[in-house]
Amino acid sequence: MWPWLRLLGGVALLAGLGWRLGADAALAGLARLDAVAVLVALGLGVATTVLCAWRWCLVARHLGLALPLGVAIGDYYRSLFLNAVLPGGVLGDAHRAVGHGRRAGDVGRGVSAVVVERTGGQLVLAAVALPALLVQPAPASVLAADLTLVVLALAAVVAVLVVLARARSRDGGVRWRRSLADVLSGVRAGLLAREVWPGVLLLSLAALAGHVTLFVVAARTAGSAAPVSELAPLFVPALLAMALPLNVGGWGPREAFCALAFGAAGLGAAQGLAVAVTYGVLALLASLPGAVVVLLRRDVTEGGDRHGRSPVRPAVGGRVAGRLHRRHQHRPAAAVQ
User: Fold this and answer.
1) What is the SS3 assignment for 251?
2) Whole-prediction pTM value?
3) Does residue 120 or residue 28 have the better pLDDT?
């Protein structure tokens, strides 16, 4: 039921924006899309994907899992593409987590590595969003809405941790609480370790800069001439809005927030919607290398691994891996967005 509610919520947001502002406003930026913008988006996509994959490697290796950077980049590209084209925006992360865990022979730690990696990125994003809200040239009502957005996004992270713990436990009750404690322990070990958190912080900030730059490219493509100093404080919370669970492949909350924030800042709600839609299309184009990874890895079977590692032995972890894989397929909220 919950995945369908997420999907319907995102569709309702997009339908409401289309009804209120019109389809022309949503498509205005796409008419100005050119090859230069697409090439810049692809270049920024390479940079941010490498940075995020590096962050994942850092966390996974600290948790004792082997993860070469080249493999991580391919897996991360695939997860970005699946997140962009499938409802909910987190199925790619679930696939990435379970797939890596199965290859490494420990699905639990594989899932924990992705949860820690995504949580670290969201915490850095929220930490940057708070001061960005304070310099945002918008009325107090919009600032209050932005602060509410930050709280909801952080609450979503906590909720996902709870869902993940329940997904890892069959019997509920004490067992899922113990699983939650294990997940939180993994988050502490993965994020607060002296040799991990500086790298996670720097890589997350660099990736965030790339995402904000793509938003600026989208704004210029959509025809906005506002200075970057005025746009950036709007874009950081917009990125945070994408973590909210009511979305269709990331679409919905981002467009609603941009329309509200641009309108309150005197830049026009229609302009904000056009910028958000243009960003969404550019981000989708930037994720297309992930489609190539999907096609190239279709021949990877459950019995082996293209990277030279032996498959998980059924007596050790095969049935556990299969059960968790099925759970993640049916419960996409088990990965942090």
Assistant:
1) strand
2) 0.76
3) 120
The pLDDT confidence band at residue 177, using thresholds 50, 70 and 90, is low
Amino acid at 227: P
Distance (Å, whole) CA 309 – CA 118: 25
Q: Which residues contact 178 (CB under 8 A, 6 or more apart)?
A: 169
Q: Which pair of structure tokens corresponds to residue 54?
A: 């590096």
Domain spans of the chain? 2-334
d(CA 94, CA 298): 17
Contact present, 250 and 242 (Cβ < 8 Å)? yes
- Contacts of residue 122, defined as CB under 8 A and 6 or more positions apart, other chains included, come to 153, 154, 157, 240, 243, 336, 337
Distance CA 274, CA 262 (A): 10
- For residues 118-141, give the mean pLDDT: 77
Q: Residue 75: its pLDDT value, please? A: 96
Residue 203, token pair as written in the block: 């890589």
SS3 248: strand
Type and span of the H or E element at 198: helix 197-221
Torsion angle in degrees (nearest 10) through CA of 91, 95, 97, 103: 180
